[in-house]
């Protein structure tokens, strides 16, 4: 990694984060289909194990220093991250994962607009090219046979994208000063408390007993949350939130590949074209020489 520039390091970490997030749908939906688990209950166990992972494995090995204001930013990010997680899964139940994914992944454009509005960050030609390519690619990649046009579900998916956009901006705001381990821990513990309260409120809380469900809870917590969350926070030390959000669009590519490999789902030529276009869109951003990391 010493041979890579700061920008290339950031793109590498954000790409790896996006690819690991691609396992989220597989583990999460398996938990809810194999047992009587609601979205809230599944997310509680996801973030509880994530919290324990950061607390037991990662935090003791770090020299953690923080200020009250930094923790406040971390809890702000935790709120938007949790809202996004809940809205996305609920939206998928209304309109299917295909349309929910297409709408949710408008968030790189929203991040760019928010950066322009709040920071006057310049949107270069490379960003426009990347936005268009990734949008077309995700549309081709989505499973349009499962799409259900429900206005409520569409609204939830769009709000999930907006929530994640604010999470990216807030996280970027404190990425330079707050230890990524501590920030990840705060995000995890905040969401575990939030979703425990929601699961208790709608009477959907229960303790899983099946080994298969626990295996998937471990997967969604460690593989699809701990590592990608930590890697994204590291990437934001090197690149701006707009660039990180574009590169993270690799997530649906991995989701589709997992479906083919683990669930024996079919992959059409249109979806293959979509994957190629998404890769072209994410690679094009590397030609942008603007290295500002604001």
Question: Short summary of the structure?
Answer:
By secondary structure, this protein is mainly alpha-helical. 76% of the residues lie in helices and 0% in strands.
Overview of the structural elements:
The chain is mainly α and 294 residues long. The chain has 12 helices and no strands. It has one domain (7-287). It has helices at residues 6-21, 24-34, 39-58, 68-104, 107-119, 125-141, 151-175, 180-201, 211-235, 241-247, 250-263, 269-284. The mean pLDDT is 82.
Low-pLDDT parts are none
Radius of gyration: 18 Å
Q: Distance between termini?
A: 22 Å
Tell me about the biggest sheet? none
Number of strand segments: 0
> What general outline do the C-alpha atoms trace?
globular
Strand content: under 5%
Helix content: over 70%
What's the helix count? 12
Domain module tally: 1
Mean pLDDT: 82
Structural class determined from secondary elements: mainly alpha
User: Strand-and-helix sequence, N→C?
Assistant: HHHHHHHHHHHH
């Amino acid at each position: 990694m010493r041979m890579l520039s700061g920008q290339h390091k950031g793109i590498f970490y954000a790409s790896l984060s996006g690819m690991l997030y691609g396992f989220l749908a597989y583990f999460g939906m398996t938990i809810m289909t194999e047992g009587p688990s609601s979205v809230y209950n599944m997310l509680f166990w996801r973030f509880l194990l994530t919290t324990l992972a950061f607390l037991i494995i990662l935090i003791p090995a770090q020299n953690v220093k923080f200020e009250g204001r930094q923790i406040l930013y971390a809890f702000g990010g935790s709120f938007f991250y949790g809202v996004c997680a809940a809205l996305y899964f609920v939206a998928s139940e209304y309109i299917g994962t295909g349309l929910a994914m297409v709408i949710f992944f408008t968030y790189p454009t929203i991040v760019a607009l928010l950066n322009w509005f709040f920071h006057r960050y310049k949107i270069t030609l490379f960003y426009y090219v990347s936005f268009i390519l990734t949008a077309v690619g995700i549309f081709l990649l989505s499973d349009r046979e499962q799409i259900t046009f429900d206005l409520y579900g569409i609204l939830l998916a769009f709000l999930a994208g907006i929530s994640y956009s604010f999470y990216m901006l807030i996280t970027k705001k404190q990425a330079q000063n707050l230890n990524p381990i501590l920030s990840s821990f705060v995000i995890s513990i905040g969401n575990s408390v939030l979703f425990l309260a929601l699961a208790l409120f709608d009477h959907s809380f229960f303790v899983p007993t099946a080994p298969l469900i626990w295996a998937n809870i471990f997967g969604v917590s460690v593989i699809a949350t701990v590592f990608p969350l930590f890697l994204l926070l590291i990437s934001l030390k090197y690149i701006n939130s707009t660039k990180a959000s574009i590169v993270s669009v690799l997530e649906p590519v991995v989701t589709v590949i997992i479906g083919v490999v683990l669930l024996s789902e079919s992959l059409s030529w249109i979806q293959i074209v979509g994957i190629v276009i998404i890769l072209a869109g994410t690679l094009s951003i590397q030609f942008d020489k603007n290295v500002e990391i604001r």
